[in-house]
């Protein structure tokens, strides 16, 4: 019997990440080359027509695995029966906007979407939040979905992880495949901490293969501020690399991996307050993320993890004060 298609809902489908993402999902790269998918595109009313245009192009690819496309501006329709939700659409920061305004505007998006997921998604729903501020948007959505297991809500730090791999590979002149156990800790923001004290290259600790000044003054800020550098160069935020990271995150979540980075709800590991959606070193086994345990954290790393986690708790407190969670 033919396999039932997996329903993948993408919000912000007419945006630039959406455009880079949808074709890869439809070609089988999100879930596997033998898994049929049904796409549901959620957009705001004024962007539905553009999403329809993208759907026409998807049709024109005649993807063998794509069993259908639905386009809507209603979250209750978009998430109905969804197995995977990629929450990409978000309110960007505009000139003159305070952080509280940004959090509030996004609360108005991610709260209702979380509720729609709660009320309509399939029992095995997995949610990846890409839209910024991703960790806190994921927390807002999760808090509006009390019937969905909390750990199904995740936020994307895989792009940061891939950036860290690439920067280190270039520095050491090695293929990215030689680097193991890379970790991004904390928030998807400039406070994130890319950790070379557990990363290994050819079996050696990466931090011991580079000088401390490069690690501290070049590597960490280059990775942490790469998003801003891309915006500066392209005049628009990263899109294809963000879509690529979303594909990597969900593929590994479903199919398993021994070590990567993902922002998932903290269970209190490594002193990160329980419930905060923070990036950790993670493995994926039997379709579930697990925080890799037992790593020694030295003072250099502790200070940086704590700073990023502090920012996350401040964001949580801010959305709480605004009544968004
Ligand atoms: P974009 O502006 O090109 O597209 C966003 C789309 O979302 C637009 O089409 C808009 O109409 C839609 N949208 C807005 N509100 C919506 C809602 N309530 N429901 C459904 N759709 C809605 O932006 P983009 O370049 O595609 O980026 C999307 C988000 O991803 C931004 O928040 C960006 O900062 C973030 N981002 C995150 C990462 C990461 O690593 N986590 C990386 C890059 C970009
Ligand atoms: C990125 O890391 O590329 C983005 O999160 C940057 C942004 O602000 O959209």
From TrEMBL:
Catalysis: reaction(s): (S)-malate + NAD(+) = oxaloacetate + NADH + H(+)
Entry annotated with the keyword Repressor: no
Chain ranges of the Lactate/malate dehydrogenase N-terminal domain: 6-148
Organism domain of life: Bacteria
Keywords: NAD, Oxidoreductase, Tricarboxylic acid cycle
A GO molecular-function descriptor: L-malate dehydrogenase (NAD+) activity
Enzyme Commission code: 1.1.1.37
InterPro entries reported in the protein's UniProt record: L-lactate/malate_DH, Lactate/malate_DH_C, Lactate/malate_DH_N, Lactate_DH/Glyco_Ohase_4_C, Malate_DH_AS, Malate_DH_type2, NAD(P)-bd_dom_sf
Ranges where the Lactate/malate dehydrogenase C-terminal domain occurs: 157-319
PROSITE patterns the UniProt entry points to: MDH
Top EC class, one word: oxidoreductase
Annotated positions binding substrate: 93, 99, 132, 163
Active site as annotated: 188
Residue numbers binding NAD(+): 12-18, 106, 113, 130-132
Family the UniProt entry places it in: Belongs to the LDH/MDH superfamily. MDH type 2 family.
Function: Catalyzes the reversible oxidation of malate to oxaloacetate.
Protein name: Malate dehydrogenase
Gene transcribed to yield this protein: mdh
């Amino acid at each position: 019997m033919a396999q039932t298609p997996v329903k993948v809902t993408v919000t912000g489908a007419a945006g630039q990440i959406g455009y880079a993402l949808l074709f890869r999902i439809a070609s089988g790269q999100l879930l596997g080359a033998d898994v049929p998918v049904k796409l549901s595109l959620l957009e705001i009313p004024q962007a539905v027509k553009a999403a329809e245009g993208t759907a026409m192009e998807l049709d024109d690819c005649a993807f063998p695995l794509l069993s259908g496309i639905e386009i809507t501006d209603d979250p209750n329709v978009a998430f109905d029966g969804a197995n995977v939700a990629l929450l990409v659409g978000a309110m960007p920061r505009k000139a003159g906007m305070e952080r509280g305004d940004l959090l509030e505007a996004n609360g108005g998006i991610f709260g209702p979407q979380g509720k729609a997921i709660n009320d309509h998604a399939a029992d095995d729903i997995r949610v990846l939040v890409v839209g910024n501020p991703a960790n806190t948007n994921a927390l807002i959505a999760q808090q509006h979905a009390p019937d969905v297991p909390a750990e199904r809500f995740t936020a994307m730090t895989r792009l940061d992880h891939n950036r860290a791999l690439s920067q280190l590979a270039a520095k050491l002149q090695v293929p990215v495949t030689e680097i193991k156990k890379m970790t991004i800790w904390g928030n998807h923001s400039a406070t994130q901490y890319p950790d070379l004290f557990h990363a290994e290259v050819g079996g050696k600790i990466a931090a011991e293969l580079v000088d401390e000044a490069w690690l501290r003054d070049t590597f960490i800020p280059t990775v942490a501020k790469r998003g801003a550098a891309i915006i500066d160069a392209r005049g628009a935020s990263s899109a294809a690399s963000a879509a690529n990271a979303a594909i990597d995150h969900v593929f590994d979540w479903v199919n398993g991996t021994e070590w990567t980075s993902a922002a998932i709800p903290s269970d209190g590991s490594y002193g990160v307050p329980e419930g905060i959606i923070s990036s950790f070193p993670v493995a994926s086994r039997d379709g579930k993320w697990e925080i890799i345990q037992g790593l020694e954290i030295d003072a250099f790393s502790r200070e940086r993890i704590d700073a990023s986690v502090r920012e996350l708790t401040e964001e949580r407190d801010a959305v709480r004060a605004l009544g968004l969670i």
